Amino acid sequence: MFTKILIANRGEIACRVIKTARKMGIATVAVYSDADRDAVHVEMADEAVHIGPSPAAQSYLMPEKIIAACKATGAQAVHPGYGFLSERAAFCEALEAEGIVFIGPKPKAIKAMGDKIESKKFANAAKVSTVPGWLGVIENADHAEKIAGEIGYPVMIKASAGGGGKGMRIAWSQSEVRDGFDRARSEAKSSFGDDRVFIEKFVVDPRHIEIQVLADAHGNALYLGERECSIQRRNQKVAEEAPSPFLDAETRKAMGEQSVALARAVDYQSAGTVEFIVDKDKNFYFLEMNTRLQVEHPVTELVTGIDLVEQMIRVAAGEKLAIKQSDVKLNGWAVESRLYAEDPYRNFLPSIGRLTRYRPPEEGQFGDIVIRNDTGVTEGSEISMFYDPMIAKLCTWAPTRIEAIDAMSEALDSFVVDGIEHNIPFLAALMQHPRWREGRISTAFIAEEYPDGFAPIVPDADEKAVLASIATAVELLRRDRLDRLGGRLAPHSGALKRDWVVKIGEDYLSASILEGMISIPIEIDLSIEGGKALTVSSDWRPGDLIWQGKVGKSSVTAQIRPVANGLRIAWKGMSVTARVMLPRIAELERLMPEKVAPDTSKMLLCPMPGLVVSIAVVEGQEVKAGETLAVVEAMKMENVLRAERDLTVSKLNAKPGDSLAVDAVIMEFA
Questions:
Q1: Average pLDDT along the chain
Q2: CB 624 within 8 A of CB 639
Q3: Are 13 and 87 in contact (CB under 8 A)?
Q4: CB neighbour list of residue 284: distance below 8 Å, 6 or more residues apart
Q5: Residues 6+ apart with CB under 8 A from 445
Q6: Which residues carry out catalysis?
Q7: What are the residue boundaries of the Lipoyl-binding domain, all occurrences included (predicted)?
Q8: Is the pTM of this model over 0.90?
């Protein structure tokens, strides 16, 4: 067994590998760029080596720097994590030439399966079911249009060396092929240094289901069940679960055996994932094989009890698998939510900045529930524009699917992240969505359910009553605390008032205290809008970020943040501003004039912090609705900004190469 390994990665996956290595008694070496000098993975490792500037192309993607770090520290093996160099056969070969072990498959398997074009040719030869498509070199956009027409629309244009949703476009008609081809090639070149793309038939309403395989160097191979990965946005996975609510035992077995056969055919030796698209009739088609550890591997670990990182290390050290296929049992249900630094209310555009607060829920087993949080950040960490925007992977396990989903809902409600925008509101709303809870999903779920993007959720009458109850209880405790401050000439609030008005958003709700005293823990009976009594109980104290308690018969976990003259409550994907007032104050408050937002209708604002790739217009040019105005790159994804209506460009405020902040004015219109 190795005594020291180097992790050629960063963020949460580097921390994840370090945890298992530490458990196995193996010393670890971290590598870091300028941007990651103070990163968590650097602090966790036994040693750390600086490998260059912040851009990945000058640090994490440079094999010679990784090899030099191994030699300097005496690391015997390298775990690549996912992304970066994890699927580069040349990197694996370079390590082998230096006598350093690559903790992953051999170059043969990486070459056969890591290239999407070659892997499909190989799969066809091995009689694995594949999606109809063109696997040869596509010379230009005209060639792409011809091929797409022959396959039949819709088609998927995908980077051969791609991954993580980058370099992928769906074209529904001939008019969309040319732009999709150009964008896919551009993203592929900037992200992977390889601009080859291929085209295949896009299966409408498919599920994305993948099989985890594990194989050693002694001819043993097995599968560890499946993961449902259909909740995707822009081809990037958002939430995963294991097992899939869609598969039956027969289909699971067929997919698993086919995956193992494919792994054996390339002499696969490590953990790997065979991805399939599955149609509504449970027909499955080989999509690709990821010759590395997957981002979503924790859900498989939770339902099988098998540490995949440990198995990868043991296989790389030459050990035989100690597990047989008959040993693999799927126990319970696991759900994973990917927390991204992105604004769900601005079409999920990236967000960067410092985490001024980062308080994940407590990890561990709580009764029948397990909570796990794989992360690479801590309070004070900087979310950089140079890397993937994922903050953490929050996972829950429970005996049943609904219990796991409900546990995830509560965990998300108690996950505090401040300083940047993030997608917790969307994830929390997803956990309440009927289609998700019933398992009626496909890769088109987000596009179908949120066609105009994710908008703030408006609470219904019952939800408003819960929010108003929480707000009232919080305000009463706040006032009671003020009354108890020493040195006051007179109490702040005077005698306890029984009647209040709670403003939730733009609605005013009456709140009456029926019974109870103001104390910690609090327990009072409230009537909202004259309704039946709701007993509100909690041990919340002023200053706590999380409010946990009961409102009526419901257990509630919500986040509380003070704002001017009130508080903001986040709960189940809802985020509302609440103000608790005496009736006379509310009467006067209704008379206050509303603030008018500034008119930005004649400006193109940068929707996210990013780099201007191109400006497609000139001053004085007339453009039609839908035409491209500019392309902005953020976190390796190119975002095309189009005209919303017919316009005339009056002034350009930015040029290619400029780094812009969110809402910076790119151009103005007459």
A1: 93
A2: no
A3: no
A4: 129, 209, 251, 254, 255, 276, 277, 278
A5: 230, 231, 232, 435, 436
A6: 288
A7: 594-670
A8: no
